[in-house]
Amino acid sequence: MRGVYLYLAVTATVFALLSARCCLNVSSDETRTKLNGCAVDFISFREQFHRSYVANSAEFDLRHLYFQNATKRHAYLNSFSTVAQSAKYGINQFSDFSQEEFRDLYLRASADRAPLFPGLKTGKTEGLPAKFDWRDKAVVAPVQNQQACGSCWAFSVVGAVQSVHAIDGSQLVELSVQQVLDCSFQNEGCNGGSPVQALKWLKQTKMKLVPQSEYPYKAKTGICHFFSQSHGVVAVKNFTAYDFSGQEEAMMGHLVEHGPLAAIVDAVSWQDYLGGIIQHHCSSQRSNHAVLVVGYNTTGDIPYWIVQNSWGTTWGNEGYVYIKIGGNVCGIADSVAAVFL
Ligand SMILES: *[C@@H]1O[C@H](CO)[C@@H](O)[C@H](O)[C@H]1NC(C)=O
Ligand SMILES: *[C@@H]1O[C@H](CO)[C@@H](O)[C@H](O)[C@H]1NC(C)=O
Ligand SMILES: *[C@@H]1O[C@H](CO)[C@@H](O)[C@H](O)[C@H]1NC(C)=O
Ligand SMILES: *[C@@H]1O[C@H](CO)[C@@H](O)[C@H](O)[C@H]1NC(C)=O
Fold first, then answer.
1. Ligand nearest to the CA of 339
2. pLDDT tens digits, residue range 162-171?
3. What are the residues whose beta carbons fall under 8 Å from the beta carbon of 10, sequence distance 6 or more?
4. CA of 213 relative to ligand 3 center, distance in Å
5. Same domain, 49 and 171
6. Which of 77, 119, 211, 338 could form an S-S bond across to 258 if both were Cys, CB 3.0 to 4.6 Å?
7. What is the share, in percent, of the chain residues with pLDDT greater than 70?
8. What is the pTM of this model?
9. Residue 144 lies in a domain
């Protein structure tokens, strides 16, 4: 063990010495991402994101290595970003995590297989607006932060339910993610789950979701609390889950017709995402994360989905990620669920 730490410490020191020169005058983020995670950058990162590890500790050296690795990744990822709207990758709150740690903590959605959407490939989309955003109708709750708990699947499902409830004419009430996390027994709480399994469970049990204020989020799996039905706000009557690959225009129609959609995605490269429209570095049919699709915009050169994530507002575009429409980028169309209340 000592040997490993010693090795890490030596490597970190060498890196620090090698990279110290590049840090003399780094101003723009763009220049920053070209560098190899200099020591000065790492120290300001540690301050910005309130890391508690102290300089010269083994933890510090290890995190510094991961940080340097992240900045190398950023340079590679950004080399594909050719136009102004393209996604940008760089330093964020995940930059001192190894890719494995990030996966283990945040990418805990199990993949759902959904039947192909049976609708027509063409037509139906003609009447659709060029852009549409459920946030404009004030039916989308603020971005949440799942923290160090693999609860994305619960956030996406609860997000869809509370929005559809508001679209149906009720006041927008934030519903309890913790209730779904604790009570949806086919899923594994903070160790992961699937939106479709959670929806099946909600439909079968007819359990009414209570307000978030009555059953607050703890970022830990706990014992399921039961409430009398009169406490509950709304139950899921039914849901659909379809594979819209090759039919993303029909998916746009589905969103406009039914409300925000719970979807699963491959989010491995999202560890480094800063903003812009994702066109690369994501695969379909390798889902590991769940999100809420709330809108789209096809007015620019690159049409994109507007997707709410649950990693807080400091991530991405104030908590949102934009994904190019067409080509099933990040598997956004792999399994897309609509809820009916
Ligand atoms: C750093 O760069 C900025 C802008 O390029 C410049 O104004 C400033 O004087 C430089 N600072 C040092 C210490 O070289
Ligand atoms: C850095 O990244 C490379 C390539 O992704 C990987 O093989 C290596 O294990 C990483 N090193 C650390 C310390 O995470
Ligand atoms: C639920 O939705 C499916 C798919 O649209 C439909 O076939 C089924 O009849 C619905 N079930 C109920 C109980 O509404
Ligand atoms: C839609 O996209 C266009 C082109 O990228 C952009 O100028 C516009 O601000 C976007 N609209 C909204 C509401 O975000």
1. 3
2. 999 999 999 9
3. none
4. 31
5. no
6. 338
7. 87
8. 0.85
9. yes
